[in-house]
Amino acid sequence: MDGYTPLRIDVFCERVTAAGELDMATSPAVVEAVLKIAGPNRCRLDLDLSQISFIDSSGLHALLQLRAQLPKLRVVACSSQVERLFEMSGMSATFLEPA
Fold first, then answer.
1. Is residue 98 exposed (0-12), middle (13-18) or buried (19+ Cβ within 10 Å)?
2. Nearest-angstrom CA–CA distance, 48 and 18
3. Is residue 24 helix, strand or coil?
4. Residue 16: what pLDDT?
């Protein structure tokens, strides 16, 4: 696949930043990594998606899975691609409102 951007996940305090492509190939790793970061206490996490260059329905499904397991998860920043998907799917209020 030309122009493929591998996914990168960075953690700073309670803020998790994902960068690259959030799709069928990377979504399971994102769910696993974020749940591991949250730990057994399921602490509050802020998710920064401003560096996501591509997201598909698998990425949205992964975010919905995370939100179901981490009620305090909130998206604090998102790229135009992520924002567009949230708007098209009717999920803006779910992810962009404070948890």
1. exposed
2. 6
3. coil
4. 87
Q: Are 23 and 63 in contact (CB under 8 A)?
A: no
Give burial (CB, 10 Å; 0-12/13-18/19+) of 18.
Answer: buried
The CA distances from residue 21 to 10, 29, 42, 56, 95, in Å, are: 14, 12, 25, 9, 18
**Mean per-residue pLDDT over the chain, rounded:** 87
Q: Which two tokens stand for residue 76?
A: 């604090």
What ranges in 1-99 are assigned the alpha helix state H?
27-38, 57-69, 80-89, 92-96
Handedness of CA 10, 16, 21, 23 (dihedral sign): positive
Q: What is the pTM of this model?
A: 0.82
